[in-house]
Amino acid sequence: MKEDILHLKNIRLFSSMNDQELRKIGTKIKVRAFRKNQTILQEEDTNEYMYTILSGRVKVVQTTEDGRETIIAMHTAGDFFGEMSLIDGKTMPATVLALEDTITAIISKTEFTFLLSTQEKVLENLLVILCSRLRESWNKIQLLNFNNASNRVKMLFALLSGEYGEKNNEGITLNIKLTHQHIANMVGISRETVTRVIDKWQKDKEITVLKNRHILLHPDFLGRETQLSLRR
Length: 232
Prior knowledge:
With 232 residues, this protein is an alpha+beta fold. The chain has 9 helices and 12 strands. Strand 9 (165-168) and strand 10 (171-174) form a beta hairpin.
């Protein structure tokens, strides 16, 4: 039980709750493990649960008619997904896949509804998070309006820096594993184009791709113009 509470404290939805409140939630969750590449939620499935990630990573994808995969979002430990279906009763608009071995805590629709009706803090946190996701969606639409591949990738890094960025003396480190294919699927360009863009930035010492696939953005890489775009 203590271990469950420690995990719940790292989940933004429950972050403002005290230990007594978390203990009550801990008795209602079920823990489930998923293997790398295993489907967690299938597109158009009726979802009866909300999933919170205790460890691991997942990607949320949509597949086009010609079979191309577009990554809508990536989630890591502390994130949650599936709540929209519980709120509006509609099917999942995308498929969720495990990027690596992942452990999730699952909350049923009944318990989720009970939490929202009895725990004001949870409801407040949920509203803030949903507003944040809406703003991220607006920025992603702006990203796709760029015709230039370099601008698309730079805008993506700017978005990721807000959620996964860690400032240090050398710049900002994006603490999320990204392959060139992941980046390509997120910005709607080819993997080969992403490779050319990344290679050029590394050669110009604007970024450094670290051994763990995290990316270090050197000072001034994003630039004032990109920062202003995100604030609009």
